[in-house]
Amino acid sequence: MSEEKTITVTSPLLPDLKEFEKYLEDIWSRKWLTNNGFYHRELEKALSGYLGVPYLSLFTNGTLPLITALQALRITGEVITTPYSFVATTHSIWWNGIKPVFVDVDEETGNIDPEKIEAAITPRTTAIMPVHVYGTPCDTKRIKEIADKYGLKVIYDAAHAFGVKVNGKSILEEGDISTLSFHATKVYNTVEGGALVCRDEATKRRIDYLKNFGFADEVTVVAPGINSKMDEIRAAYGLLNLRQADRAIESRKSTANKYRDGLKDVPGLRWLCDIDGVRHNYSYFPLFVDEEKFGMSRDELYARLKEHNILGRRYFYPLISEFSTYRGLESAAPENLPVAHRLASSVICLPMYAFMEDSDVERVIECVRCGK
Ligand code: T4K
Fold first, then answer.
1. Domain locations in the chain?
2. Which top CATH class is 17-242?
């Protein structure tokens, strides 16, 4: 094992500690710790403005807004989704007693392939839950056409898509609802946290009831809600972190370009390219390894990096459809998901985080290049 410093796949964006202490002192003096407090309200406003979405509700993580979105839109029966994501996407469907139906993905982006959605629709289908995986926008236009044609709702898992825009418009504006994760490992974090973005005030009101046990007022419970409120400490932390969100994304972009440049002449490696008109957030840097051309398998590269204390991660391997909970579903059959299987067996995410040191980026590039 190498003695070199460990480089992890990500490292959290942290607010200035002194500034945070000031906020903590204020919270101490207010003695108001949760339940729609001052910092909660301030962060909702600030995020709505920053992201350009008028109806945003804060949550305590990125999984509960998915679960709540399905509840709020009263989704039942079957939901079409992607197997190429973090398990939380499909778990949210299953937790609501709904059957997930997996559809294969697009080779270039890893996002659900819209051309395969129609064949998966049955009389029980009520919604589509795509994921903007790695922050790359789904083909939202095509997905909307299909949803409109069959009368389906669309809930985008936008956990990776903080700050992503297409032609100046937030990607969170697409679909009926979009959800975000503010987990420590994300582009923008509130330690744990998340948000739900919807289209109108009435839906936001209902969602705010649902995340607070269904309480509409002291004596009225309108639905079997859940407790998914963000507390004041994390909201204050989030307010501070928002100040450096743009700089963090710029810094990630610069790292992505260093990787692209440093690896451009290496055969058998593919990565995501920037798309015209898209403001990317560079949330991950997935490399897809062609074993024959690269001369080493993805798992060999993963092990080699690890030997050198570089902890790349195989997001998203195994596919969700391969986990025992879902393996029995008809749509989980590998022959239904050939592209997703190809991506899952060839992907490795290189370390990617804001303000990554140049020497660390160079060490990763060197190690991948020597892996040939
Ligand atoms: N939908 C999608 C598409 C998602 O990707 C996710 C979450 C969700 C929904 C659900 O959102 P949340 O309910 O989680 O808000 C991580 C995250 O836990 C998870 O949030 C994320 N996706 C998923 C892709 O990755 P792990 O198990 O890989 O994380 P972990 O703990 O192994 O951390 C990875 C590396 O990050 C560590 O090796 C070092 C670094 N790290 C991590 C933490 C937690 C730090 O340096 N500091 C830290 O505090 O799941």
1. 17-242, 245-371
2. alpha beta
